[in-house]
Amino acid sequence: MAKSSVFLVLFLHFLFFAYLSSKGVLGQSPVFACDVDKTPDLGDFGFCNPSLEIAARVNDLVKRLTLQEKIGFLVNKAGAVSRLGIPSYEWWSEALHGVSYVGPGTHFSNVVPGATSFPQVILTAASFNTSLFEDIGKVVSTEARAMYNVGLAGLTFWSPNINIFRDPRWGRGQETPGEDPLLSSKYASGYVRGLQQTDKGDPNQLKVAACCKHYTAYDLDAWKGTDRFHFNAVVTKQDLDDTFQPPFKSCVIDGNVASVMCSYNQVNGKPTCADPDLLAVVIRGEWQLNGYIVSDCDSIDVFYNSQHYTKTPEEAAAAAISAGLDLNCGSFLSQHTEAAVKAGLLNESAIDNAISNNFATLVRLGFFDGDPSKLQYGKLGPNDVCTPENQELAREAARQGIVLLKNSAGSLPLSPTAIKSLAVIGPNANVTKTMIGNYEGTPCKYTTPLQGLTASVPTTYQPGCSNVACATAQLGDAKDISAQADATVLVVGADQSIEAESRDRINLQLPGQQELLVTEVANASKGPVILVIMSGGGMDISFAKDNDKIMSILWVGYPGEAGGAALADVIFGYFNPSGRLPMTWYPQDFADKVPMTNMNMRPDPTTGYPGRTYRFYTGETIYAFGDGLSYSKFDHRLVQAPDLVSIPLEEGHICHSQKCKSIELFENSCQDLAFDIHLRVKNMGRISGSHTVFLFSTPPSVHNSPKKHLLRFEKVFLTAQKEELVKFKVNVCKDLSVVDELGSRKVALGSHVLHMGSLIHSFNVKI
Ligand SMILES: *[C@@H]1O[C@H](CO)[C@@H](O)[C@H](O)[C@H]1NC(C)=O
Ligand SMILES: *[C@@H]1O[C@H](CO)[C@@H](O)[C@H](O)[C@H]1NC(C)=O
Ligand SMILES: *[C@@H]1O[C@H](CO)[C@@H](O)[C@H](O)[C@H]1NC(C)=O
Ligand SMILES: *[C@@H]1O[C@H](CO)[C@@H](O)[C@H](O)[C@H]1NC(C)=O
Known about the structure:
By secondary structure, the protein is of the alpha/beta class.
């Protein structure tokens, strides 16, 4: 009796492990529908027929489902329908800056133990290199497909995060491309193009499906008792249309993204996931999204249970679906949608619409085409993950993003042959996980700053603080090694314990006693001191800016798995730094005076509110948007620019008889009106380097317009003493327009001032 029960237990164990491996838990086979090799009958279903149009396949599938089955396709853990050969599909995977383990759809295993971990997005954005954004997206989607093929990842990735970095305290600012609508738009469309690669042959075939989030005006997590689940963002029509919406619009229209995610917060009293104007009218109607709208996890539960936006859960379900939501991250819709239909709050046709958008996306991913190994991307596998080329791109991205903020003569680059000893100090000097920020995956490997620097010169090391909180700095040993070394590199800053999801900052200064550590070490140092700030948000480091012993300052964001190698490349001059700040660095005073909850972008002189971002902020900065030095000097010369731009208006236009300050954008006379700006840019230095040319414009002061906004940027590589002509085509309607108080775009008449480096050029726009 006893013996046979032992055997039974062993046998059950055997069955259990056989079951696990057949399910791909150990990473073997991908999840897909229409496996006609195994079940030939499935080939009779229209939805399994790749030669039919997408809409026909989707209709065929929807027609075959019961109401309960349909409801199962409204949530991220989508239901299985075995009679139709459809397995359960997990929609939630993430790939913010590399394939991530955040989200239940993706896992690492002994088959794929890690993926390339690129710099956190805020640093990649600092490269201002649009082809880099796309190249990173391509590598990430290659690794994602490779992991899907071995059953370790999904096909739908809820990245990128393209919210405007409105306030320096935001814990998730690190995930975003910064504060500027144009840079964020270029990042969004570029990264999404790389991920989806819809440009490769058939635009209806997706490599993976990306998702732009969190729509919209979401940029507060938890600050002094206000959290994202309860926050009502009060946003003017003007700010919505010229600051918060443009990245999403560009993501959908230019990037052709397959999904948009609505946020937790309310905008002007309505939860974004229950607002038909924001979802159905704008995303689906005006922007013509080809894909699905998904909620944050779990926004519907949040607006019902935390915001009490509806009286019953059925009303909440109906409100979300009626507003245009297609997929619920969470389980709220699987619990309450059927009752909503029974109560007459929702028609089944609305559910059909929603799941059709979800199915159409899966069709475009090849999910209903049978065995993926026979399809495009089917040959990708573990050998395509963490390749030397992919890891080199992670290092390259970090190098291109790193920003040199201060460099007194005779400091950087350090000569790797002249430096016989380098003191490396600080709580972030030898960190690994800190470098990859949040929404991370397991990286291929790490190179810490200490390891990167030690590869070139002999080093000594003292952390100086036991962690970034740095309650008590350990000054003695740190000062000693600095006093003996030829040069000192201090790596300080933040990590996810300081700024993170659900964690906004109060303080903009270096945490704890880090400032004391830096000052004391600098005073004790023998050689030049290089201060390296590793952080997502900007820091008030005025103390270091003004300290003559701190000769150089670098900001390295969270630089990814190869961050230490990239830092060493810059410090020793193997790479000429070219990153520029994608956000304003404010003084502590800003955080003391300005409530994070005030969404207004524009200053208000009556209350002393200073406004936000370089476009509007009127106060002092520590460092400004676009700041960043090089080891070379670059010179700009204006070659071509207009002095006058005339907008032809039809006879009888009201502005002929009456003095107008601006004209409506839809006037077709101005649609194709464009002019060229030509600049000659020269590398005056002795080493090669890349340089970002910014074209800013100050419009006439009508409609409370920005004091300056970025019209174009272009990054050029120039060898020593070389020059190049940089050409910008400026569209009068698109680029010179401003958003008026009611949210419509208008071209301001009068004097516009262009800024290009230190060059200034004015021209008049008249009718
Ligand atoms: C932009 O990035 C790409 C890599 O994606 C790189 O090859 C190129 O040199 C960069 N451009 C400039 C001007 O630095
Ligand atoms: C359901 O459809 C009917 C017929 O088209 C329509 O009259 C009704 O308003 C719809 N109900 C809801 C809740 O949308
Ligand atoms: C630096 O970090 C690496 C990786 O965590 C570790 O292996 C190494 O021991 C550390 N070096 C020192 C000197 O602490
Ligand atoms: C700098 O160090 C010297 C000793 O070398 C000391 O006398 C002085 O007080 C220090 N200054 C600061 C600001 O710590």
